[in-house]
């Protein structure tokens, strides 16, 4: 089988990407003429992709403006959304209009942690328990060894989870503006190297990861303990404004919320909302995030109340929103431009971006929920969402 062309010295170049397109076209008889049209520099892609051949172009639309009253995200934002789903941008824009006229969305990052969870095996449960106590006693030294590998990562704490003679140590780090998965892997390994060199007992087996960090898959542990950013977006909507813009009063939307809660409960869902993943995925693609993290980031909770004066309080909580404004794909040309539109480039902007994502999710939840109640869901898709 012929191998895909590579170069040991010039692999990230226009010439090599063209050579690979020619190779694929020869092997498959398919045309890559559109894949080969792009504005980004191939030389900028080292560390982001291998065998660079071209681009998958996803349309970007802007929703908004959206008014946010956050701790770090303050003001009006035009939100870039990369999607091929018709009605999506229009729906989010409708929710943004409602929340803007209601005075804006309050956003708060309430927790921050990125994990790696190594596993240690022992002769029996008693030895595993003794090891756990030893780790607690030596936390400061383990922290020092871990943090020697990173300029910005800080070890917050180490959770312990045990079963039989096995013990998982869930290292919790803050990671500055980076998402941090690679950062915490390197730091956790350094901490574990110190543990293995200095623990006076016998560790029968060690592995750096054994699925308790739940990387790129959701878990109830993440919902309870946070992975990435834990963000709340909330708003109180005047009753008349909801009726005028969304064509449904708070009472009708609240009743639908109870039905949706029960449906999610019966289905065993990790989210009692409508479609967190839509807004998150569209923003992740536009802004250079690791899209596989949608598996964790799209889990969440919606909560609503009808207040004594008839107004509607509504909130979304995203317990494991994994985002970055530094590293990964955030520095690539088009992705960087989208982050610039949001004012989320430069140091110390990751919480601002997280708040904007959460506020966007809230707008999408209100818009879709209202469309279902007002019986406008199908008709809007018929009008905007069918590519004929």
TrEMBL record:
What are the record keywords, sorted?
A: NADP, Oxidoreductase
User: Gene3D superfamilies, from UniProt?
Assistant: 3-hydroxy-3-methylglutaryl-coenzyme A Reductase, Chain A, domain 2, Hydroxymethylglutaryl-CoA reductase, class I/II, NAD/NADP-binding domain
Q: Name one GO molecular function term.
A: hydroxymethylglutaryl-CoA reductase (NADPH) activity
Q: Does the keyword Oxidoreductase apply?
A: yes
Key word NADP present in the record? Answer: yes
Q: Name one GO biological process term.
A: coenzyme A metabolic process
SUPFAM superfamilies registered for this protein in UniProt? NAD-binding domain of HMG-CoA reductase, Substrate-binding domain of HMG-CoA reductase
Q: Which residues fall in a coiled-coil region? A: none
**Enzyme Commission number(s) of this protein:** 1.1.1.34
Cite a single Pfam family from the UniProt record: HMG-CoA_red
InterPro entries the UniProt entry points to: HMG_CoA_Rdtase, HMG_CoA_Rdtase_cat_sf, HMG_CoA_Rdtase_eu_arc, HMG_CoA_Rdtase_NAD(P)-bd_sf, HMG_CoA_Rdtase_sub-bd_dom_sf
Entry's family note: Belongs to the HMG-CoA reductase family.
Official protein name in the record = hydroxymethylglutaryl-CoA reductase (NADPH)
Native organism is: Alteromonas hispanica
What lineage is on file? Bacteria, Pseudomonadati, Pseudomonadota, Gammaproteobacteria, Alteromonadales
